[in-house]
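User: I'm putting together a teaching handout on how multi-component assemblies are represented. Below are the sequence lines for each component of a complex, exactly as they appear in our records. Could you produce the 3D structure of the whole assembly as structure tokens, so the students can see both representations side by side? Please keep the chain order the same as the input.
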Amino acid sequence: MSLVGAIGNDVLTLAAEAASTASGSGPGWMAAVPLLPLLASALCGLCLAGRIRSKLPAAIVVLSIAAAFAVTLFGFLGRADGAQVITIFEWIGLSWGSGPGETLSADFGFYMDGLSWLWMLFVTGLGSLIALYASEYMSGDKGYARFFAAFALFVFAMACLVMGDNLVLLYLGWEGVGLCSYLLIGYFYKRPAAVAAAKKAFIVNRIGDLGLAIGVFLTFVTFGTVEYDELFRMIDEGVAANGQPLEELWQTWTIPLLLMVGAFGKSAQLPLYVWLPDAMEGPTPVSALIHAATMVTAGVYLVARMFPLFVYDGVPHYALNTIAWVGTLTALFSATIGMAQFDIKRIMAYSTVSQLGYMFAGLGFLTTTGAAFHVFTHAFFKATLFLCCGAVMHGFAGQLDLRRLSGLIHMKGWLIVSLAMLVGCLNLAGFPLITAGYFSKDMILSQAFTTPDSIVPYSSLMGWILLITAGLTAYYTFRVFFRVFVGPVEYEPGDEVHDHGHDDHDTHDEHGHDHGFHPHAPGWAINTVLAVLAIASFAAIGTYFVDKDHHGWVGGLLHDSSAAYHAPAHEHHAAAPELKHGGVMLTAADDHGHAADEHAASHEAGHDDHGGAHAEAGTLFGQDPHAVMYYVSAAFGIVGIFIAWLLHYAGRKTAAKSKADLLLPFLGPIPTWAQNKWYVDELYDILFRGPLWLISHLFHIIDRLLVDGIVDGVGGIPRALARSLRVGQSGILQNYAVGMAGGLGVLLLIAWILTVAG
Amino acid sequence: MLLVLVLWPILCSLLIAVAPARQARQLALGGSLVVLALTIVAAFMFPWDDGASYHSLGLDAVPFLPSLGVEMSFGVDSVAMWLIILTGFLAPLTVWGSFTAITERVRTYYAWLMALNAAMFGVFVARDIIFFYVSFEFTLVPLFILISLYGSSNRKFAAIKFFLFTFLGSIIALAGLVYVAWKASADIEGWTFQIAALQEAARAMTAREQAIVMLAMMAGFAVKVPLFPVHTWLPLAHTEAPTAGSVILAGVLLKLGTYAIFRFVLPFLPIAVNEYAPFVAVLSIIGIIYAGLICWVQTDVKKLVAYSSVSHLGFCVLGMFALNSVGAAGSVLYMINHGLSTGALFFCIGFMYERYHTRSMEEVGGLASRMPVWSFFMVFFTLASVGLPGLNGFVSEFMCLLGAFQSGASDIGAGGTVGQLGPWYAAIAGTGMIVAAMYLLIMVGKVVFGDLREPAGHGDDHGSLPADLTLREIGVLTPLALGCLILGVYPKPVLDTIEAPVAQVMAQLEVEPETMHAATSHDTIVKFAMQAGGSDND
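Assistant: Of course. Below is the structure of the complete assembly, with chains in the same order as your input.
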């Protein structure tokens, strides 16, 4: 068969596969979800090449992502129960035997279950809204088409990450979103800070990616496959590909640890969080979509996706416990930094890191529903917050310093922005009852007190840390709101350098900075998107009240996914007490005491079923944490908001000064340290970058002097010889002759060694 | 057919040498397009279903010295065929890409460029050692001339160093090959140099003989790859070579080393290979990290890419010495992928050099605003080189690392295979991925992004060239970019067709456990190594 034959055959099988999958396990047209944005990206590339300066790229991208959303929604509404596997074409395939584990196969295919549906719905939904926002925000920028090409490519990569049916395709998406993040952070490529931030993001992510890659390798070696379908089946059966029971394998707890490293990189957790705050150098729509709502939640997705392995019973749960602690400490740590920043976009960045910490803590406490619900609500309200910051930045020539802006709500044209900001702040602060952020955060917090210490040691200590962090969050969130959006009207424009989105500002020159600056209030696209997002942030509460059986719509979706994996029933109950807990927690974890009695009952029932370890379930103030947490977390949130009001609103006369300044003398150097991000970047420089830089230079010198020197010294002999025989073309022949003679000598030497020594 | 593939470039070369200088460019381009066409015809004739056996696609052999048993015999398997396709694909691009760079002594230039193609084809089609070795060595001559006549300031030194270094190495390899031929001819009258016969003989050798022959062969082939610590000729040669020379050097010539290891070292010397695989792997890993870190502190962008080749080929050799299918297939794929992406990077740098006459990242930078099209290609090929999934570098890098991870890990799980490496090798080599991101993105950050920096007094004068790429230059880079994209998204045709020959080599690597560690006396080898090292220095 000729080459073309081979390729032709591939095409045929490809078509056959597509046809068979269309009628089989899932609809082949779901391929449109990643492919539409990819096509849009290519078209934007053409616009770029054709130097099209109109808004065409934005229109293409908004429409394609919206279409992808429509396809997702259509597929979602018509989905079958359980997971659907859709194979599009064979990507990497190699076989070296027919036994288990002797074929490496990674297809371009999708694994659609509740988890992937949930993620795809908000990725494409938010993606189209934010693209619409960006169509106005980025207008007039020279790189308009470039921006939208990378934007659409991001949606493609994110779809691969989320929908992929195997870990290698997930890795493709994982690195792909990293690339788009790199390209978009460095979008303003003339600014050194942006270029450095982009580089930092990519490199720090690569550290996590190495963990992920090794995790994938180890998964393949252990299970002989990287495809979820197979993997979950084997984990369910409890045996590895070579027939060994998983309890006996060290890989069973090592693989989660490795995947966790990848998740920490992408989701900006300690110690790999340093790239995310710097990523704010990118245009604000990018910060909203990639660095707040979607990409950074990929780590949560990964853990939830591979949850069956994380909770696998009979092996130590090092990964889960690490995740709980790292999440908790990240939440606290970045909240303290956020409290001391003055750049409102940076504050939002640190709050994202902090909220991601909550999500990881939730995963660690075994409430995947809580984590995913928080991802979902956070996606909306954090996107709202960022887009509001973007509108401010857009309107005030890049001004983001909360000491130089005040009373925006009283200015003409800024009402919608201010109200949307209020909605976002209330959600982030967890204002009780009316915000979705309150319910999702509660789910995680109460779980901290419910999870018995036998599964997650010190979980109630972590719960208290997270509660205090919730108070801090409420404080720094409303510090922004009270300083910038209410109070006396006062503003100072930023310098043009910081004016994101306007390389050439000719069209806005009528503002005339010399004779008084006039803020540039947002237009219809930005206002519409903000209004929709603000409403959506509120409406997200509704999802909490539907599907009572699974504690909300999100819970229902997760129940139908790998994240709701129930440990298999073992015969030996006594031998595996943790398993039972794992199993119980997963069902109980999502309980959130609306009907507290019912839940308590189901709790008890659960425990009774499994040998009655009731006493172990945690309590808070002697009550069911699910019921009490409503009041406790509400109290922390409201106290935080109140302190912010007291320090930053009450009696404030100017933008620059507030009562908080009175506290400064009592705090010593701490605010400065926190403002300087606790010098973590500097520490990393000293610990890693510096030594590595020295080693590199050392290697360079070694390479030049030592290795090269010896070779040159040695090479000098025949060179001198060659020179004496005249360099040039005749010299080559001479060299050849010399070399031949040398070669003969070596040959004789070998023969001699073999005869004498042998 | 294969003979035509070798003879046609020689014919072109002669034709260019005698034709008027004005026509040299056109003749070379036409000739190289015919080379490409011939490659495509050969690819169509090749029976891909039977990729593991050798096919001559016509004439089998030409008697050369019948009395000595020497004949030129031809045959390619699918691995060689893919490398021939790579060579044929690059041939017209290197000619086309040199149009403005080479303005003097054009006849000599294009004649030797064509001759180089013939030599490279010779290496891939040879089925006897003499033909192979002559072609292998003959590649040095054209490149020596290209570097020494058309290179930059330090070209003479670089050319001589390149020549001597690789030449001395391959002479030692020849010694090893001749020793095997001597063994193979023991029972027959006259000599045989047929690779198949030599393979039989080599496999029958004792463990100690195999170890010594492996040392000899690796001395030659490792220099060509180049493997740490015999890599130091490469950065210099690359930096000084003209663009097309660098492209061919990175694209195909380095692969002659890895190809020779795949063709001779692995199937000839299974006992020694199994024994010393960890040693070679450690050298590869040192090379990956060492060269990668050196890249990090380079200021010369061409030298940076040259060092990155050392780092990248470390992955390639690592995958090969994983001694399992995934690693070896990844390694073969790596040869093709590296040829495309690094070759393309050298083109990009060459195009920049033609405009600015400097390669220093201190002097030139922020070109995105001056040369957007060029910047696009530069970023694209950098990302391919970084191993970004979706582009070609990823699949092969992933497979090389996975191969190293699986190797010898059969006690860990069913996905483990035979082999002498293990998870730690992959984990440590994997840090090379981080280092690669560091140096390549820093390069892009300096050269493409940031404020525009141009050499003093440069102004808007780019010589005869416009600020950004010409259509010709875009035409050179676009096929390479498409190649990177296609092999990244759909590597299946390559993987499917190399599966059989890779499986065959892997089967040949299986040795009885007791033969290993048996007769090898380390003392002898060390002694020999010192002597060989000494004679290398002569």
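A couple of points students might notice: Chain A touches chain B through 98 residues (CB under 8 Å). The first helix of chain A runs from residue 3 to 23.
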